[in-house]
Design goal:
Number of domains: 1
Number of helices: 8
Number of strands: 11
Radius of gyration: 17 Å
Largest sheet: 9 strands, mixed
CATH class: Alpha Beta
Structural class: alpha/beta
Strand content: 15-25%
CATH architecture: 3-Layer(aba) Sandwich
Order of helices and strands: EHEHHEEHEHEEEEHHEHE
Shape: globular
CATH topology: Carbamate kinase
CATH superfamily: Acetylglutamate kinase-like
Strand order of the largest sheet: 4-3-5-2-1-6-10-11-9
């Protein structure tokens, strides 16, 4: 395996599959099977999931709600997705631990870095829910922060697109894909990969990011086997 310990970042929207809202059971089961495959190959896996398929704090602000209040609602949405993925993984025979940045002792552990690392060393998948626990920070920022805290080798950002392009490939048929791109070039070209806080954290801590298509079964294993899947962002 190319990497020993990874942080897999999934968007909430990706869990919708073909639905307009909520969670597609077939999609989440497909993700669970892909994650199981790499766990069985010896990769230590931590996961952060967004909540956009259920609720976004920004949506609340647009509707006149206080942004802080909306962001906390968004954190709860990430917990619903995290619990759903935990259930899917465990139904596939994968030992999983869910940790939350906001204490919810009836359903999960509170986030504790040393405990999370110990779970990973024992071969358990660790899901980090509720973002960073702070408003105004996205789940991208949570993914970057947690990846650095657990000394992950890489962030794998699973999306519906098979990498980073010069433009939106759904809107511009002439858009071309990057195989590799530097952090500096992403800044210069103003490419939207993560929010700037998350991206800068990765840059300053020399943590590579790989953007790839998670919706194609087998891609995750191929990527970790060293195949050229997606786009690598590196210093």
């Amino acid at each position: 395996m190319k990497y020993k310990r990874i942080l897999l970042k999934l968007s909430g929207e990706s869990l919708m599959g073909d639905k307009q809202f909520g969670i597609d059971n077939n999609r989440i089961d497909s993700y669970a099977k892909q994650i199981k495959e790499i766990c069985e190959a010896g990769v230590e896996v931590a996961i952060v999931i967004g909540g956009g398929n259920i609720f976004r704090g920004v949506q609340a602000e647009e509707g006149g709600m206080d942004r802080t209040h909306g962001d906390y609602m968004g954190m709860l949405a990430t917990m619903i997705n995290s619990m759903a993925l935990q259930a899917a993984l465990e139904s596939n025979g994968v030992n999983t631990r869910l940790q939350s940045a906001i204490e919810m002792k009836e359903i999960c552990e509170p986030f504790a870095r040393r405990r999370a690392v110990r779970h990973l060393e024992k071969g358990r998948v660790v899901i980090f829910g509720a973002g960073t626990g702070n408003p105004y920070f996205t789940t991208d920022s949570a993914a970057s922060l947690r990846a650095i805290e657990i000394n992950a080798d890489v962030i794998l950002k699973g999306t519906r697109v098979d990498g980073i392009y010069t433009a939106d490939p759904f809107k511009d048929p002439t858009a071309t894909k990057y195989e590799t791109i530097s952090f500096e070039d992403v800044y210069k070209k103003d490419l939207k990969i993560m929010d700037m806080t998350a991206f800068t954290l990765c840059n300053e801590n020399n943590l590579p990011i790989i953007v790839f298509d998670m919706d194609t079964p087998g891609n995750l294993k191929k990527l970790l086997d060293g195949e050229k899947i997606g786009t690598v962002v590196i210093n």
